[in-house]
Amino acid sequence: MSGEKSIESNLRFVEDRIRAACERSGRNPSEVTLVAVSKTKPFSDILEARKAGAKEFGENYVQEMMEKIEEASNISDMANVKWHMIGHLQKNKVKYLIGNTALIHSVDSIALAEQIEKEAAKKDVVMRILLEVNVAEEESKWGFNTETVKDAGKEILAFPHVKVLGLMTSAPYTENPETNRLFFRDLNTLAHELYEDKLIADQDNDFKLPVLSMGMTGDYEVAVEEGATMVRVGTAIFGNRHYNV
Ligand SMILES: *Cc1c(COP(=O)(O)O)cnc(C)c1O
Known about the structure:
With about 240 residues, the protein is of the alpha/beta class. The chain has helices spanning about 5-25, 45-50, 60-70, 95, 110-125, 150-155, 180-195, 220-225, 235-240, and strands at about 35, 55-60, 80-85, 105, 125-130, 160-170, 210-215, 230-235.
């Protein structure tokens, strides 16, 4: 508590930085959606962020996300928020997300997309997804690489209940965000190639296409300069995470 800034002032700070990055790169700030990443944080923090104007929340763990969605369902202020699944997803958890989640960012295998197709078909809905790309080819990270993502996009075209809106990446952790600039630029180029090839949807009521979900607390300003349409920011809004509570 002591010395920490409020969620509201943190949110204003991040929004200002996004606006400034847009100005530097000649972009319209309305092109960039801020997803507030609330994993490990209590529901009261989400409410506080909502009251301060946050409308989109990102979570990594299905059970935690479902508990929060359940809690939100009783609160009128939370009625119009969008929930984003951004963490690695196990196939057996997919069924919980369909119908509750605006966008699954972390689709990292064809088998996972196939499972989403199956569960979305059961509920007769179309699930919006992004394909996750491991831009730096890190051993520790999930995702397609820049080659396999195109083949994946082709296969997923055959799934009528899955709609690919764009690409997502988590760039390497770094003290110097400039070191991630070229990864972001590469993802942007790649997304536009897939879009040209019609492997990414060209129309959506809710999202500007192609979606480029990239940039976290350490590097979101550079990501915006390189074309991010969605940034996923946790720590800069909610403070450090404590995993062992
Ligand atoms: C936790 C997480 C974030 C947010 O990270 P911060 O550095 O706290 O902003 C963004 N994206 C993914 C995939 C995450 O797991």
